[in-house]
Amino acid sequence: MPNLPQKKEIFLTGLWKDNPVLRQILGICSTLAVTNLMVNTLVMDAGLIFTVCMSSLTVSLLRHYTPMRIRMMVQTLIIASYVIIVDILIKAYLPEISEALGPYVALIITNCIIMGRCEAFARNNPPVASLIDGLGMSVGYSLVLIVIAFVREPLGFGTLMGIRVMSEGFVQWTVMIMAPGAFFTLGILVWIMKYFLPNTKTGEEKT
Amino acid sequence: MTKQLQSVVYMFLISLFFASLVSAVKYLSEERIASNQAIKLQRIVLKVLDIPVGKNISEDRISSLFTERVKDIQVGEKTLYVGYEEDGRTIKGYAFPVGGPGFWGPIHGMVGVNPEATKLLGIAFTKHSETPGLGGRITEDWFLTQFKGLPIHPIEGDQKIFYLKPAGTTTAANELDAITGATNTSSAVEAFLNKDLDHFLIKLWRSVEDRK
Amino acid sequence: MNAINPLTLFFAAIFTNNILLTNFLGLCPFLSISKEKKSAMGMGAAVVFVMASTTVLNNLIYYKLLLPLGLEYFRYIVFIVVIAAFVQLVEMMVERFFPPLYYVLGIFLPLITVNCAIFGASLFMVIRGYDLMQSLAYGAGSGIGWWMAIMAVSTIREKLQKSANLPKGLEGPAITLIITGLLSLAFLAFSGMIRVQ
Known about the structure:
Number of strands of chain A: 2
Oligomer: heterotrimer
Strand order of the largest sheet of chain A: 1-2
Strand content of chain A: under 5%
Largest sheet of chain C: none
Shape of chain C: globular
Number of helices of chain C: 9
Radius of gyration of chain C: 17 Å
Number of helices of chain A: 9
Order of helices and strands of chain C: HHHHHHHHH
């Protein structure tokens, strides 16, 4: 087996060089849906970090036992189970946020990032490395979402985490709360990212 | 073909494991989820009956306040709530659920009326799928407090109980501000609220009065 | 409680509640395959078929099987298994009866399984309490809406490729997102058109 990159490097790749949202352009659906409110974003981030890490860890632990042909079904099952657990926990302990997030927690299952990491990394790598890879990717995702929410909530609602941050006379940019605002903000962020890292994306980090 | 059999067995075992894991979590949280629902309902009923509930009040306090001040009664298929004043005997008002199709999905709410059913004490929405920041603003205080004190009467002919008009164009006492940019949600609320209030006054009020 | 006319729902799903432009679902394949009109056409047709069928199937399973047994919290797993199985079935049928189409679509067919729009349609169907006819209208309409959005964006991208002089950083996903944003803004104009009750 070729030399594994250092653990720190694995983590940092997910954060910046191969950032799942801005470089690999994955996980867009939830990115756009929940970032109109910072509090929803944070809950979604927590849910995703938990799911990616647990799924990558589990897939990696089972990688020598899972028959090749059914691996995608097994991965789907694992991911779906963890998402259901997250969904139940949010419903039980954060009921209002659960209602605000609606179906988007469930949609973590089809979030391409998780399946992507399982396929690209976890099924070929030892558990600890897979966990760190999952952590890096999900934290990278979370940071991007926080930045977007930082733009959308103040401009769209005039608040941040529910606390008023814009002056009283500020006219809300309602478009920021809705779909178009999300697309524009993300598009501009991707543009900025490409400006700083102009080489075409590194492709899959392979081991 | 043992390879295929192996795959099937593996799949079965994994499914069993995860299904059990999920069921376990579900089982452990069930009580908590049910009590969340119950507290939410109690809080809403107290709110629309205009019984003050402090901001950072504990769940136990909500429950005890609810038990002291509210009784539920069955009228036909519907559950209505009777609210009492602090003396525990004078009726403060009645609360009943309302709901109808919104723009994106069904909207559920609760309405409180005074003991004579001549005006609204309060209204709150419990569930909706409207757009946050637009239709979702029906849960905001400014929208809800408009309904306080609104006179209600059975619908006669074309005259609705109340209308939601674009903000700034309201003239009559029964015209309230709609939500700017959320015309569809506003029309939906206007439609089902009028209908449910009328239904209450015509169909259910008599049974409630009889019980007094 | 949901008395929406299925036909109204069908049109609403295409224009006013477009599953891609309003609910942000189905974006990942969208951003990679919308470069070529031909693959967009094929993918779109497949998605419409799968979406309509699985929304109806999942409606039946949810109301006739899961709810009566009190197992509705397993619905995420069940829905996605149904979708995966259905896509597998479609793949086999296409390979058998329309081989040229099979080669054109290539890897995109299995990718339909993780298209969040298809899973999302089933989720919304449950949240909004649609019945069988409404599920069919919503599934088919959402699929067509997705198809239309992807066709529109891919056509615009092709045109841009040939004529516009984009700043280097904007090429690819960035400009696609901005185009989609503009399209989404345009579709907002439809929201006055349909009265959903």
